[in-house]
Amino acid sequence: MLLRITTTHQPAGDLGYLLHKHPDRCQSFDLAFGKTHVFYPEVAEHRATAALLLDVDPVAMVRGKNRDQGFLLGQYVNDRPYVASSFLSVAIAEVFSSAMAGRCKDRPELVATPIPLCARIDVLPVRAVEGFAQRVFEPLGYAVETIRHPLDEKFAEWGESPYYSVTISGTKTLSELLTQLYVLIPVFDNQKHYFIGQDEIEKLLAKGAGWLASHPEKDFITRRYLGHRTSLFRQALSRLVEEEPDDAVEDGETQAPVEEALEIPLSLNQQRHGTVLAALRASGAKSVLDLGCGEGKLLRALVADRR
Length: 307
What we know:
Oligomer: single chain
Order of helices and strands: EHEEEHHHHEHEEHHHHHHHH
Shape: globular
């Protein structure tokens, strides 16, 4: 999966300062699920492009702690290594953490300065109605271009795929662009590669400060970001309704530690507990009998949750 960020701000080389990545070097970073590479395919006085290439390791996905235990064949036959997803969001947060938090020691005046930016994502799975990319990005001030790819170019009768090359452009701060991409990419994919818990609400409100509360699709974005978990959605939405945009923005320095714990792998047992708890909440059960409860971890979680 590939993310390209282009600017025509002059001098265009300032993009390297904002991203904290030198235009003359190709840098690679190890992640829990693969490797990411940052390089500049284009650097000129009037235009510069930085590229983030994410190489997800499919073997690590199968053998790692976060592997899917449901559909065994799906571990080997899936689109995860090739499409923009929550994997890309995590890569953005880890590799461009300073830029995303709005920190730049060498060009501090540029951090808060909107500059012409263009981001292209190849490829983005848009699992929604036609035109959903426009409905999400245009209210944020972006011009949107999409190219839909066929399922197979050799077999036109198979129809169109849900995969798009998406380009958005606008005059934004780099921090705004990266933060909005971080939140919205998993929304298009409509899934995440890690367990969605209570901490996702705080993450969404922090990253969505100043723009999500006023977005016409905030309900849809919030529901998808929180994995369609009704209890989390209701909590987040109630806080978004009350949100005052000027008070919701958090200091960039306080956001970085959150990213460190974003993707702590959950054990299979923790995933089972989370699934059981969600099902019990949804059922509205008033009493629960746990047969063969072992150490009683599930019962302790239920006692702590008085809903």
